[in-house]
Amino acid sequence: MLHPVHPVAYSMVFYIENLEDLYPSTRARIAFGVVYIALAVIAIPVYTLIITIFMAIMGSVYSGSVIMVFLLAANRFFVLVLSRFFTVPPVFYKICIVSTFVYVAALFGISLSPKADIQYEPLFLMLRADTEKGWIGFLTDMDGYVGFVCFGSTFLMYVIITGYLILQRTQSTNYNLKKELKVLVQGIFIFLLGLFILLNRDVIAQRIFLRYWYTASLNVVWIFYCGLFNPLLYLITNRELRRQARSIVFKNESNLVTITSSRARTS
Hints:
Layout: H1 8-15, H2 24-80, H3 90-111, E1 119-121, E2 126-128, H4 135-171, H5 178-208, H6 212-227, H7 229-237, H8 239-249, H9 251-266
Antiparallel strand pairs: 1-2
Helix pairs in contact: 2-3, 2-4, 2-5, 2-6, 4-5, 5-6, 5-7, 7-8
């Protein structure tokens, strides 16, 4: 995508041979305009390429996180509800994680393929594709269907898990699953934010409310979800992890306090 060249640029190039006949200020303005156009022709496509790659990473990683949301809900469902009947082997989760990684890598590669014809829309900070072009339209629809199926199944499993835990709590007072409940709450928060992004990306932002400030805000939430949301959520809900983080951040201060207290005891 080339930067549109203003008609004045052609007059600049025409008069560039007669710089010695112009005033110094005029020569400086013309030289600045020529440099600006040259940089724009180079920088705008590079900037567009970087943004396209970055947003392709966001889209593919989000598609993978949708599957992980479903897998986390399935894990909670197997552990909390069906653990009395059977146990899922760990190799099942490893296969799912590897398959999801391959799926994400494939989506990223296809998104950057010239045949995909995916273009960056600077007016809305979004990537747009011509969904009528055969296989790319099929891929887009498939990714959307996978997202809605995964989130729909996840919602159903969380409803069953919540009802089951309420039933077990009313029947037995010794039913203590504090650690399991923490993981369940984390999964529900991840599910809700992911569902919010999915509905906005595929329904609201595309068809109902296409505004710059809205799509820009959605991208900020999207970046937060793909990069910072899960670590912060685990840090907030895990006391042991918070303690380890504090010991790493305030390591020097804790050592100073220990040395000072030991000297006080020896004296």
